[in-house]
Each structure stands twice: as C-alpha cells, then as structure tokens.
Structures
1.
Amino acid sequence: MEYRYPAGNVFYRKLARAYPLVTRGEGIYLYDEAGKSYIDGSGGALVVGVGHGQKEILQKMMEQMGQVGYVHGTQFTTRSIEAYAEALGKILPPGLDKIYFLSGGSESIEASIKFARQYFLESGQPQRWRVVARWNSYHGNTLGALSLTGRLGARRPYLPLLINFPHFPPPYCYRCPFHLSPPGCELECAKALENVIQMEGPETISAVLLEPVGGATIGALVPPPGYLSLIKEICERYRILLIDDEVMAGMGRTGKWFAIEHWSISPDIIVLGKGMSGGYFPLSAMVTKGELIDRLKERAGGFVHGHTFSHHPVGCAVGLAVIEFIKERQLVEQCAKRGDYLLKRLEEMKSFSFVGDVRGKGLMTAIEFVKDQKTKEPFSRSQRVTERIIDESFENGLVLYPGTGFVDGVHGDMVMIGPPLIIEESEIDEIIGILKRVFSRLERDLGEGL
Ligand SMILES: Cc1ncc(COP(=O)(O)O)c(C=O)c1O
C-alpha cells in the first residue's frame, strides 16, 4: 500500500510525497513496516530528546491515564500537574516559576503575547500591545505566532491575515547585514532593536520575542558574545518584557536546561514545547513570574485565555517522566559533550565545496550550503540542494530537518542535525558516515552540472 495523497483519507503535510509507515521506534532509530531503519537525526523537528520507545515514559503515562485521563483546567488540578510544575520550577531560571501548560509551541507563543498585552492593560498602559520579533525567526504557524515568525515564505500566502508586528535583523554573523564581524561590530544587529523601538514608539511595545539560538528558519544560529545582554538592556531601558522562545532550544537541547542560561540572562517570560514531552504527548508551556501574574489577579481576576486541552493531566505526567529520565541519566551534561563531538565532526564537512557554514550549540546544529565558499553565493533555488540532501539522506536511512529561503526570502539552503540527547558517539559517527556518502554524491552531480 502506498501512503501518498490522494490514496486513503489522510490530508498529508506534503501532498506530493510518499510516506513510509513507521511501526516502531527505539532509541535514536525508527523502523518502517518494510523493516527499513532510519536514524532520527533531527528527532523529528528537534522534538525527540529522550529517544523513542522509552518504556518508563509509557509506564508513567499509563499510570496517569489509569487514574484520570482528563480534567478541565478551570475545574480541577491533579497530582501530575502539581508535581510536574514543581519539578519544572526547580530547573527554571530563578524567579521564573509560574507555569501555564498548553499543548503546542504556537499555542504557547499566542499565550505569551496575550499575557504581555493583558499585563500592560492591567498596569494602566493599554497602548502597549505590539511585539517586536526578528527576521528569520520561527515562532509557529497560528496567525499570531506567524505574524511574529520572520520566515518570508511561510508568511507570504497569509499576509492579509497577519498582525502588523515590527521585526529587526538576526545576529547572522556568517552573512552580517551590516557587513561587520564581532568583536569589532559593536553588535550593530542588537542596536537595530533600539532603532526599531524608537521608530515604532516605545510606548506601543509590550514585548520583544526571540529564540536564544535561532532554529527552524535559519538553523542553529548562536548569537555572538554580549548580544543577548545588550537586548535585555534595551528592553529594560524601555520597560519592555523579554520573551525567550525556548520551544526548540530548551529542555537540555543546547547542553543547558535552557539556552538562555549560556548567557546568564533573565527573561520575563519563557516559552517551552517540543522536548518537554520528547514527542510522547502534545505539550508546551508559558512560564512567567508571580509578580507579573499578580497584576492580572488584582485587576481582572485572571488571565483572559484558555484552551480545552491546557493543563492536561496526562501531558503533565509525561513531562514529569521526561524530566526524571533526563536527570537520572544526566542527559543535559551528556548533550553538551556529545554536541561538542558532533560539531567537531561536522566541521570535517567543510572539505566539500558546497558546505559554507557549520554552526550550533549542544545537539542543535546546522550546515549551510553555498554555491561558492569564498563569496558565500547561495545556490539557485531551482537546484533544490536542500531537498536533494534531505531525500538522499532519507534514502540512506538518515532523517534530517530542512530549511530554505533565509538568505533573501527565496534563496538559502541548510539542514539541521538535532538527534535525541541519548545519542552515543558511535551513533554520531554513523550519521557522519551517511552525510559523507550523500555529500560525495552531490559533489559529483554538481561537478557534472546536474
Ligand atoms: C522556536 C519555536 N517556537 C515555536 C514553534 C512552534 O511550535 P509548534 O510547531 O509546536 O506550534 C517552533 C516549532 O518549530 C519553534 O521552533
């Protein structure tokens, strides 16, 4: 049977693609019904942290389902909800310990921008509602989140539906928009935020939203030293809230529980998702400080927001099981070490003529492809370099995560490598082996003008 639209009744995400049917997952591997194995080299979309098929997670999930599978978030709480919030509260940066559970990253981004808006409304500043985000960011696909997402290709079809939020350029040192490089650049890209705030009117801005390490749109973009502290300084100067989107980079992925900790910054709101449940349940959260929530309690009596599946007892049981799993095996510390090893091995790829940049932190990494290593000229989109690498790797049993269009809204090719945090060095070697095979073939094809 072929799993491809229009066969069957599924409206797949990619309508031209045939989908293998996966019957089992174990560790970093997935197995399809034909028996073929795949290394989940991107953990889906950098979701799978604890690995596939972990019986302990299943056990805890079943226990909760056996007790109670669902209660509504306005009516009851459960031990799983309370215990998970307590466990998360212990690992979150100091002061950030009040957690609103949701079921997806976009949903939590929506909650965070609504929370910032309501906070200022209750603080007597109703004109503050606009959020500043960055170009080449990814914050989700719901309309509010997409309005903040700086991925032109995803925005284009929906522009008439989007909210007019301002954007500023990312710290993309490989292609610095100011043609500078650190440390001599004096962080012009961070200063650009202040410029945008001044032009838009600081009294209209509620929050600045950013990914501490840029993810799905631009590929594991690590900011230069001093960048995030300058952003925080600018936010404080104008009394604007800083929202830290850790949906992809959080929960140990970069070698610390939360990526922002690499730079010792304290945001006002943190958004989490993906690795919270490791993929076992749709789970996300918005985290903030009690002192901000108190403002809502005093004036309106609460946060005017909610969803049917928020504060889900089973989701929270899974989240708690995931934290325990990560702690028991010291996966955050291990991720930092494995990440260093992965990055070192990915550097070897620069011997291929089309590898422009290798970047990342921990097990959140990316390779950017270019037509010319010296000039950094991107490939023509018609060459479909990312797609060719993704498809060929898939054929060879390696799943990667693609990204295109980040150079100028059309051009730009990259893949992300973000395997489960449980990965061993020998398994990283396996990934590198497949990448080398796939890249050699592409080098040959490009040489022949294909
Ligand atoms: C940083 C970041 N924020 C938000 C989202 C949106 O999350 P979701 O796809 O769960 O809605 C993503 C998803 O890739 C993400 O990487």
2.
Amino acid sequence: MVTRRGLLAAGATGGAAALIPAGWAGRALAAAASLDARDIPKYVTPLRIPPAMPTVATDPERDTYEIAVRQFRQQILPPSWPRTTVWGYGSTAHPGSFGYPAPTIMARVGRPVRVTWVNQLVDDRGDYLPHLLPVDPTLHWANPAGGVEQRDRHGRWDGSPQGYRGPVPQVVHLHGAHSSQESDGHSEAWYLPVARNLPPDFAVSGSAYREFRSRFAERSGLRWAPGSATFEYANEQRPCTLWYHDHALGLTRENVYAGPAGFYLLGGGDEWPEEALPGPAPTRDDPPNASYHDIPLMIQDRSFTADGDLQYPTRYSSGDGPPVSVPGFSGSTIVVNGRTWPTLTVQRRRYRFRLLNGCNSRFLLLSVAANPTARPARPVLPVWQIGSDGGFLPEPVPHERVLLGPAQRVDAIVDFTDVPAGTELYLVNEGPDGMYGGGRPGVDFPPADPQTTGQVLRFVVTDAAGTDPSVPPEQLRLPSHPRLGAAQRVRRLSLNERRSGGSTVMLLGVLDERGRGLPLRWSDPVTEQPTLGDTEVWEVRNFTHHVHPVHLHQVQFELLGRGHSGRAQPGPGERGWMDTVLAYPWEVTRIKAHFDLPGRYAWHCHLLEHEDNEMMRPLNVLPRGGAAAGDGGASGGAGRPGTASTGAG
Ligand SMILES: [Cu+2]
C-alpha cells in the first residue's frame, strides 16, 4: 500500500527537479549550469530593509504614487558573486528607488492611496523586453499574441524554444486589500508596456482593461494612460500587513519569480496605540542610517545559474514542443528581502517582524534556534504572533514554530531582551523541500535541507542602545476583534486533481449532487456569485493530496473550522482575519466572508504554479436583485435567510 508518507517522501527529495513528475522524459534546453546552493557562503551580507516608497504628491485627500516595474541588476548573491537580472517596482520620480523587493508603501487607515502602475519592461531604446524565463504559451493565459480575439485564452506556440518571447503583460494586485473591482488588479486587466516595436496585431491589454478603465474614469475623472493603470486603495480595513505583486493571467508564477513584489503596511486606525508595539518601520523622510525595530521579512526560495541569473525549471512535452508549465517549484536557496541568507544585527530588545511567505509554492515552518542545522530544530525563543493576514489577533499567541503557506503573513514579535550580547541565533525552516501534505517534519515528511533551504536568516545580538518602550508580548492587550454576523448562504466547494495530458492538474470546483468534487476551470460558467451585502460560509473540500493556500480577493474572512467535519477549532494563530487559508488534504475548511463590493473578482490557490494552470475561479459579487445565471452554489443550509448581516470593516 502506498502511504501518504511514502508519497510525500518520494516527492520531496529536494532541488528544483523534485517537483517534476516522475517519468518525465523531457529534453533539457541548453540550460546554463546551476549554481550549487551549498557553495554560497551564508550570513555575509546584512539584511536589506526596504525603504518607504516615495510619493509623487501628498495632499489632504490622499497619497499619490507613480510606480513602475523595470528590469535591472541587483546583488542578490553575496558580494563578489555575480549580480542577478531581476524585475522590481520603484517610483518613476526616484530612479534610485527601484528594488527587489520593492520599497514599502506606508499607508494609514482611512487615508486613500492612489497609485499609477506603469509597465516599463522596455530596454534603453524603448523596445520591449522579453521575459527572463521561458514562458508556456499554451496555458489559458494573457496571450497578447492572440490579438483582441484570442487574448486571455489558450495560446499557440510559435516554435521558439523559449516559448513566448513577446512583450510581457503586467497588472498589480494588492493582496488582502478591500479594493473596488477596477483597482483590484484583475488577472484579465493586464497591459503591455508602451514599446517602440509592439507587434501591430498584438492585444495591448487584457479583456477586462477597458471596462475597468471606464469605471475608474467615471469614479475619479482620471483616464489611464496606455501601458499603465491607476488604482485607488481606500484603506478602509483594519491595520495589517499587505503586499503587492503581479497577477497577470497564467503568468503570475514567472512574473513574481522575476521579482516584482513589495510590502504595503497599513497602520493607524483608532483602535490601538502603536507605541505599545516595537517600532519604528521605515518612513518616507528618514535620515540615513535610521534604525528600525519593525521589519518586514519577505522570504522566498530562488535558484540561480552559475552566472547568477534566476533559474526556473523548464520542461518540454516532446523533443520539439514548447516549454510546458511545471506543477510546483522548490528553489535551492533562501532569499530574504532580496539577499541570500542575510544577517541582522539586533539589540537586546523587542522586534516586530512582518513575516511573509513570498515563495511560489514552498511552505515555511519557521523557528528561532541556536543551532542552524540540528533537526528537529530546538527553538530557543518564542515567536509571538500578534496578527494574521488581515490584522491583529484577539490575543498574542506564542509559537515554537510558525507555519506559513505562500502569500500568508504573520505579524510577530521576537523578544531578544534576555539574550546575552554576542549570541548568534538563526531563523530556521523545517517545511518540506517539495509539495506539502500536512503533518510534522521528520515524521510525515523530511524537513528542508538543513544546509541550505532549512536556513533563513541569522540574528547577531548586541547590547541595547536605549530603552525599549514597547510592551512585552505576554502583557499586550490587542484590540477586540469584530465577528461577522449570520450567513445568508452556505456554498460547498472543492479542490480537485485531474489527469490532463500526462500530468496532474489541480482545479477548484463545486460539488455534484452526490457530494463529489466537480472540477471547473477559469473559463467555465461562473458559480461563485454572492449577492452584494451578503455574508456567506464557504465549505471547501480538499480532494487532493496537497495543502492548498486558498485566497479570496476583496475580503478578509474568518476561519470557522477545519478537519474532516469542518468543525475542528482553528489554531490560536488563525483566529483573526485572513485572506489566505490552508486547506488540508481530505479535510473541509470552513470560512465566513462578507461581500460588500460589487463586481468581478477571483478566488484561487496561491501556489502560483497551480493558480497559473487553471486553479483559479471567478468570484463575482452581484447587485442585490440581479440575476445569478449559472449560480450553482447550495443555498440555505446553516444560513438563516433574511437575517441581516452585521458586516465587517
Ligand atoms: Cu493549489
């Protein structure tokens, strides 16, 4: 009998190749040699703390930004090693601001932020830049080469061994934000750069772009310029840690892998005195060498060629076919804030860390240990979780180990006050080097290679330079947490795997009349169509062997329960607002959300390789009284029809 443990072990042998299905007889493109991650010295570069993104205007109404994505070279590997060509965001008014990760957008609750996002993936002559990585043109993807008729559909391969080599679609999603549809960064609202040599028959924007451009113009009087989109974020939600990244249809995995991502820290609100927490974070007018005690950590896995370029697995369906998307990715190094295995000098005081799993498909199981390679890791300091994706928890939760799926955030405090100066501590990772099916490291799956991907960051403790006014985490009282009212509807949904063309495809879906998973693709009729103002319970049944991080746009939701019945209590770190929830194999994950913005959104798996290959479905919020054609969700259930919802901020 094949056990789950056996399957997982077979799929987790480490390295980028581990996620390519067994028996794959692909032809390797004359690929550059890989860099052996064991050869890269660790902890030789200081952690880079992204500065605050400069504005182009601040007035009583709002903060205004103009942010482009560009291609540049950056030192990601240690000094004296080759630099890496990446993409990243920065302020067009401040050419020195471009970085991977991007500068952090510092926002305040109740104060709108307006960003004009510009696709500047062009070279010095104004010609478009092709992708850094081979692109599978046969997926259901943006497909600009298909022209207006065939955009946002499956594309055709033109014979290039690199796949699609044309101009690259971009559209920015602010992950976790309560955004109106035209500002959400819908996957079909992408746009190409304004380039000298755009082929005339290409679509220059996605099929949703014009509609959202009109809506935004109606709302604000401002019309998007070609090669750009202007979005407005109301910041009417609880203070929290958001992040922004590319979301183009069928291309997100490779776009995000190339670098474009940044933090968006929403502070303020009248519910909580920020002085009680460790700070400050970077602000827009800091002096050089300011010191920070509120530090975002974007943790990602990356592989490199011997020349220092980003490496991403390429496989082929046959000897002379196009490059084909891979079902998962496991990089050979850990990169934090754009540097491999950095080191952070900390004082004997408390620090707030905004932990973000920015990996394509790697799950992280993090702890603070004195020995970087001992397994099981022996945690020496608790990681105090004070917040989840959407804001503060009801109370601080001490963790020995913190589990983070792709796109999830943990707002954490680590207290170094009692650690002797001179001590070296390590943030280590015991998540797997392959797909994650749940369970414990060393029991249900081998932990990540302790020599490489099992290590993240080194802390070097020094004496405190001043007093620490922050409140110890065990004494913190966090603001009370509003709960959603009764649901009007229960929706039964599924996560499925299906064989397709020799490999396994993961698909979202609904349930059929016998309670079995009925998988649906991105282009199938819309089934998730809540009515504006409604609160819904979503019961997501996972019929696959893998954990999938399920992300809903527009909302922050509550996790009601999990387990085989969906009634098991969420863990203590899951009792706040979330926008991405881990759905475990063969379990029911029950969430509750309130939909108070009309229009076209999406829900999807945040394993980027799944999301890009159909594991995404429309989420359309209909006006009250509107027809719900094709709406196949189950109604009634535990909901009490007619019960008014109390809503959520
Ligand atoms: Cu998935």
